[in-house]
Amino acid sequence: MVGATVEDHRRRILAGVEPLGRSDTVPLGEALGRVLAADVVATLSVPPFDHAAMDGFAVRAAEVAAPPVELPVAGVVAAGDDAPPLPRGAALRIMTGAPVPPGADLVVPFEWTSGTDPVRVLRTADAGRHVRCEGEDVRAGESALAAGTLLGPAQLGLLTSVGAASVAVRPRVRLAVVSTGAELVEGQVPDSNSPTLLAAGRAAGADAVAYGPAPDDPAGFRAQLTAAVEAADVVVTTGGISAGDHDVVKAALADEDGFWFGPVAMKPGRPQGCGALAAADGRRVPVVTLPGTPIAAYAGFLLYVVPLLHALAGSPWRPVTAPLAAPVPAGDRTVLLPGVLDDDGRIRPLPGHAGHSQRLLAAADALLVVPPTGRLVPAGTPVEVLASVGSPVGSPV
Ligand SMILES: Nc1nc2c(c(=O)[nH]1)N[C@H]1C(S)=C(S)[C@@H](COP(=O)(O)OP(=O)(O)OC[C@H]3O[C@@H](n4cnc5c(N)ncnc54)[C@H](O)[C@@H]3O)O[C@H]1N2
Ligand code: MOO
């Protein structure tokens, strides 16, 4: 019996999780990577007025229907100018981006003319050619972007063009990390889980705060846990969940309604747990209890907590995969191996894997997730890769 699978545990953690109900309003300059909480209705049309799409001459199509035709040039209109009306029987020199003069319905590019004054129009087209019309892309009053859209560079440009200066976005998830262990409190072992998990949480878009290290006595731990639950949308603990005499997280939470502790068929990170606690205001705050061993804590965070952060934020998440560069033996449980990417985007385990080496983890581009197939996984097989922002694999955001 190898315990629940990684997928079982991911499902258990995500079951019933709804996006947080609040939203933030942020200026566009701070909106990169956020997710729209509401549709954005355009207050400006795109383009905002009819304008020339080519440098050339603004004319009446009907007056140049049978080229060659010679017309006097009544003036010049450039981007930023107010357009003068086009006199009958004349042309106006016009630059790309300039407003189309009232009366004109065609822009003849310089290349189709003599370019002189008077201008000889040598070739023509139907009315409307080389004119970009007001609202042809987005019309003022219509929805420009829908709630749920992830804001990247193109979306920020569109929002600016439709006149939005600030937008309602789904909230940043407040993440609390409570590391546990007397050895950390006593300063015998540096608390390396807190900075790692805070960084991984921030890379996934959360506001992350450390509450640990908490001591190995249930009352002391409970006090820090309660403070974390009151202040956060999700709480992650590390350590204190295996079979030892001082496994404080398990001791404090195993009898709580709805908490689950048990082995998950993965290596490292076999002991896992999860549940939810009620805050004083009635919010149900998910709690994920990760093992203390640093690689196991980090792997558990990327496997389980990152998707949870996305579910709470209401932002899309899907696993990132990369093909294996070389065959990798698989067993009866999921194995997480520090790996490096080749130039062609294939991933291979780093040699010298020693189970719990932080040095090896720090040399890796990502953790590769070897599925429990019980056989050699052939080169080329796509496998899930776990990484955070700052790694060449990027974030699964
Ligand atoms: N009899 C058994 N013993 C253990 C089992 C088991 O099934 N039966 N599982 C082993 C496995 S696998 C793991 S993983 C660990 C997980 O134990 P805990 O989650 O209770 O973690 P701790 O005992 O608190 O710590 C384990 C190890 O990691 C160091 N640690 C903890 N927190 C931090 C931190 N924030 N920064 C740096 N290092 C940390 C801690 O000092 C320990 O050395 O249990 C096995 N035992
Ligand atoms: O599952 Mo634990 O992280 O191997 O030592």
Topology (SSEs and partners):
Blueprint lengths: L5 H9 L9 E4 L12 E2 L9 E2 L3 E4 L9 E3 L1 E5 L13 E4 L11 E4 L9 E3 L9 E2 L10 E3 L7 H9 L4 E4 L4 E6 L2 H4 L7 H11 L3 E4 L7 H14 L2 E5 L9 H6 L6 E4 L2 E2 L3 E8 L5 E7 L3 H20 L6 E4 L4 E2 L4 E8 L5 E3 L8 H6 L2 E5 L5 E2 L4 E5 L11
Parallel strand pairs: 6-7, 13-14, 13-15, 15-19, 17-22
Antiparallel strand pairs: 1-12, 2-11, 3-10, 4-7, 4-8, 5-9, 16-18, 18-19, 20-26, 21-25, 22-23, 22-24, 24-26
Helix pairs in contact: 1-7, 4-7
The chain binds ligand LQZAQKY5 and molybdate ion.
Cofactor: Mg(2+)
Pfam families: MoCF_biosynth (PF00994), MoeA_C (PF03454), MoeA_N (PF03453)
Function: Catalyzes the insertion of molybdate into adenylated molybdopterin with the concomitant release of AMP.
The bound ligands are:
ligand LQZAQKY5, molybdate ion
Number of domains: 4
Principal-axis shape: elongated
Q: Write the CATH architecture name of the largest domain.
A: 3-Layer(aba) Sandwich
- Indicate the percent of residues in helices: 10-25%
Q: Pairing-aware structural class of the strands and helices?
A: alpha+beta
Provide mean pLDDT, rounded. 93
Number of strands: 26
CATH topology title of the largest domain: Molybdenum Cofactor Biosythetic Enzyme, Chain A
Read across the widest sheet, the strand sequence of neighbours is 14-13-15-19-18-16
Largest sheet: 6 strands, mixed
Beta-strand portion reads 25-35%
CATH class of the largest domain, named Alpha Beta
Radius of gyration: 31 Å
Ends: how far apart?
34 Å
Low-pLDDT sequence parts = 390-397
Helix count equals 8
The CATH homologous superfamily of the largest domain: MoaB/Mog-like domain
